[in-house]
């Protein structure tokens, strides 16, 4: 889409801060070494984690492959593989990962944009989407079946 094409050069190999929140208006924050989605208001809004991203040049650019991280990109979001893949944070810098290679697959998400919202599909687990729970203060996760309990549509805006 037009917006994806416009954002691609912005992201490139530079790590830029973005705000990411789900369509229920839950922001991401760090709790017990996990990214959690919750309603942050007033002084708690300072807890919101900025999401940093870079393009993974190993993958087909048309799929808009990105690597997501927090804390200026020093910690990366990674997907385990298996029947029920698990999302986790790893102490790997996203700019190092952006150089690509097959080993970066589990850190890579394909972005798609529709009707003003973004979805992020795991490159390591095709069909599995980044999701928040319909409940507040639950960890960010992955789902194969978007439904009322698993929110997969996000707003993604340069901070």
From TrEMBL:
Q: State a single Pfam family of this protein.
A: IL1
- GO cellular component, as recorded: extracellular space
What is the name of this protein?
Interleukin-1
Q: Which GO terms describe its biological process?
A: inflammatory response to antigenic stimulus; negative regulation of interleukin-1-mediated signaling pathway
Compartments reported by the entry: Secreted
Entries under PROSITE patterns matching the protein: INTERLEUKIN_1
Give the classification, highest ranks: Eukaryota, Metazoa, Chordata, Craniata, Vertebrata
Which keywords belong to this entry? Disulfide bond, Glycoprotein, Secreted, Signal
GO MF annotations for this entry?
cytokine activity; interleukin-1 receptor antagonist activity; interleukin-1 receptor binding
